[in-house]
């Protein structure tokens, strides 16, 4: 089984330049309705 067969949505990533601001990260989580991280 490949990863492509298991994945249902595109991967959401945070640019390293944006990782310095916690509010950008929180906004990204809210935008994609991410409630839990693995």
Automatic annotation (TrEMBL):
GO terms for molecular function: kinase activity. Keywords: Kinase, Transferase. This is Histidine kinase. It comes from Nostoc sphaeroides CCNUC1.
